[in-house]
Task: structure prediction
Amino acid sequence: MRNFNRTLFSLFFLLFASCLFAKVEVGGIFYRLDRKNFLAYVTYKGETPRSVANEYYGPINIPRIVEYQKDSFLVVGIDSFAFSQCDRLISVYIPSSVKKIELSAFRGCSSLRRIVVSPSNSHYYSDEYGILYSSKESCLLKAPELVAPNIVVGAKVDSFAPYAFNNCKLINCTLFYPFFVILKRQCSPPFRMDSRMSTSNSLSGS
Result:
């Protein structure tokens, strides 16, 4: 009897969770919907990140508000692996409402050229190269894999996320002293110090 009650409770919980956090497609974008708080999170198609390949392609413009079954949901996040391995994805626009982007959201996007953040977003920022930063530009979060071959990283950067330059085909990346030393030790592209900040010789990454 006790096992039966546990099984019944588990089924009820799963049913409740599936109703509360539904996964839906609206306008070619997949979302997890928090029906209780009317919030939406961009996610991947299928049960697991790799169960469906290339569900996103071309330019993707994430809206601020998603309308579903006569309800409005505010888009506030991008899930882990949401765009992972979408090798035909070219660019992504992130609206002002997004507060949380998981670091692995853009992993393996071999054709990604730009990540564009709304100027009104107070949590994230993107530069002219389409590189994603934290709001105060202190942390470089993700450089698109097809970012321009020669870039200048913002002078405010003092840290960067794991795999921020993963698979990028950079020829040269200019960083501002003293943070170029920190980045050079952990990344593979050729980094050099900005000549206006120091007279030291240029350094190449390993």
